[in-house]
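Reviewer has doubts. Consider these tokens.
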Amino acid sequence: MSDYMVRAMAADAQIRAFAATTRELVEEMRQIHNTSPVVTAALGRLLTGSVMMGSMLKGEEDLLTIQVKGDGPLQGMTVTADGEGNVKGYANEPQVILPANAAGKLDVGGAVGNGYLSVIKDMGLKEPYIGQTALQTGEIADDLTYYFVTSEQVPSSVGLGVLMERDNTVKQAGGFILQLMPFATEEVIRTLEDNLSKFSSVTAALDAGNTPEQMLQMLLGNLDVQVTDTMGVRYACNCSKERVHRAIVSIGKKDIQEMIEEGKEVEVNCHFCNKRYSFSVDELEKMLD
């Protein structure tokens, strides 16, 4: 089954809900960046959360960037998503190896450490919106939950998971976001809290063969779920030689002149997809013109 996400409402629009299966895009990321299992889990969770949050953007050109900076060995991650289901990202240290945590699971929190999470929304205004919160556990889902509550004042529950095969490929990946609207009743809130307490995990639900729609049904129970939209999601990088060309031009004539004087071909590597773009001395000279 290809990766996709669903958007839904429940309890007469008192709850806004998102759920996604993202195994293919997380596996593609793993292959591109050759990430270790714990980094695959960390970055895979952030990619999944970001692609769902990206679908909340209103404008076609709007972009969401989430940065995690921590004092753990992973150091940090950066992910960018749009409103069309496209997402990309990278980890500062993709090869981190850590022993399992006390629960016998990949120690994502230990890899990330203490630090902060920044959410940057570029919506075509003069200045982008930037919200920043302290990391709560480094496990990503808890940190996004805290961000929604403190920066956007939206009571939310975020669940994210990545399950690895024994050969370190991705077996399952996905997540959900549930958000309470301001007019949610106490009865609806109690029902949702009760359902969440009974829900095992995202990866357990997906590994049992459940779809995103069925996962939402498990989470929302009898709260009258109505799926409003289904969207394909994918790992996609929009880099190109033309975009890199413009980036080099933007650094200014002095720096370009220094590159030319070195007499060597310049190679630029894209952080998100690892594509390499080369520019000859002749091409650099044309940039000066």
Remarks:
- The longest strand covers residues 170-180.
- The chain has a mean pLDDT of 94.
